Structure formats: C-alpha cells, structure tokens
Amino acid sequence: NHGINYTQIQSCSSSLEGKRLHIKNGEKTQRLSPKLTFVPWVLINGNFTETDQNIALYGDLKTLICDKFQGTTPPTACNS
C-alpha cells in the first residue's frame, strides 16, 4: 500500500548486518533516560520530553520535527 519493498526489508533483517543493527539499537534502548515505558517512545535530537512525546503522538509531528530540526537543510516536507 505504501510502495515499500518488503523483500529488501526481509533481506536486511535476516542478514548479519541487520542482526547487528537490531542488537545495537536494543542496547541503545536499554540505556535511555528516562527508561522506555511504552512504544513508540519518541526522541527528538536524541532527547525525550513528555511535551514532545505528546505533540508527536497527539498533535502535529511534522511541525514538531521541522521546529526542532538542527541540520543545515531541513526536510522537503518542512517547506509546505
């Protein structure tokens, strides 16, 4: 429905690299502060705040991401 190539995802997830990335992200999840209590647990620029979490889940995720973007070239979606 969304134009996602599931074959590529399956291939990655069952590869050694996919397994390594899964472990690496699990380790990062275990080190979160505050500790993850449910999913999705939204981090913006590597930080968790309850305010950002609520906006991401119940408000305007796109505006939140665009407002907090710290790079040099914002995502194209931020221009509309």
From TrEMBL:
Residues that span the membrane, as ranges: none
The keyword Thylakoid appears for this protein: no
Coiled coil: none
Broad class of where this protein is predominantly found: secreted
One GO MF term: oxidoreductase activity, acting on a sulfur group of donors, disulfide as acceptor
Compartments where found: Secreted
Residues making up the signal peptide according to the UniProt record: none
GO CC terms of this entry: extracellular region
Taxonomy, superkingdom: Eukaryota
UniProt keyword terms in alphabetical order: Glycoprotein, Secreted, Signal
Family: Belongs to the GILT family.
The protein, known as: GILT-like protein F37H8.5
